[in-house]
Amino acid sequence: DHTVGCVINPAVDSDQFTLAGLADDQVRINVLSTTTHMDPLLEVRSPTGAVVDTASCTNYGCSFSLNMILAETGTYLLTLRDEGVNEAGAYTMQVEKVLPPPNSQRVDYDSEVSDSISPSTDIDHYHFNAAAGTSIRLNARSTSTHMDPTFEVRDPNGALVLDGAVDGAGCTNF
User: Fold this and answer.
1) Half-sphere CA count of 99, side-chain side, radius 13 A
2) Beta strand spans in the chain (E)
3) What is the number of other CB atoms lying within 10 angstroms of the CB of residue 47?
4) Residue partners of 76: CB distance under 8 A and separation at least 6
5) How far is CA 70 from the centre of its chain?
6) How far is CA 55 from the centre of its chain?
7) Strands 126-127 and 105-106: what pairing?
């Protein structure tokens, strides 16, 4: 899920969200500042109330991703505010379950997938089946100017095998 129209105003304001998760779920929280000078700071608290992680960035259009493996089952508290508590502004936040992947679309060899990223913090999940030791070529191409998609390939246990990026409207082979 993602937020729409969230604003920190006044500058001392904070927004809070909850995330229900299971132990060993891998989640990614993407945050994008959409206001000049708004410096988002995200704090994540465990179901017991302990701070388990924080992340932030500075300047208009800054963004960050926070990758976490949830240590326990329960409801986590996400608090977002301006880092210096001195500027108001808007942001977008997206929480995605990376593993196990939700609603993953299968891609077969020699097939093409076309999709879009919306909002800009979105993540799309795909999977393919392969035998151990199989070599593959992954071709990725951005069809939008200034869109620089990134991707990750993970093994069946979730370990990162490959990550890459495509330069806007270009094509890259991996």
Assistant:
1) 16
2) 6-8, 14-21, 26-33, 40-45, 51-56, 63-69, 74-82, 89-99, 105-106, 126-127, 139-141, 150-154, 160-165, 171-173
3) 18
4) 18, 19, 20, 21, 44, 45, 46, 47, 52, 70
5) 15
6) 13
7) parallel
- 75-93: per-residue pLDDT in tens? 999 999 999 999 999 998 9
Please tell me the pTM assigned to this model.
0.72
Mean local confidence (pLDDT), 126-138: 81
CA distance 37 to 173: 37
Specify the pLDDT at position 86.
92
Q: What is the pLDDT of residue 167?
A: 57
Q: Name the one residue in this structure whose structure tokens are 């129209």.
A: 5
Residue 32 has pLDDT above 80, yes or no: yes
pLDDT value at 112 more than 90: no
DSSP for residue 101: P
Could you give the C-alpha distances from 109 to 136, 137, 163, in angstroms and in order? Answer: 9, 9, 19
Tokens read off for 106 = 């299968």
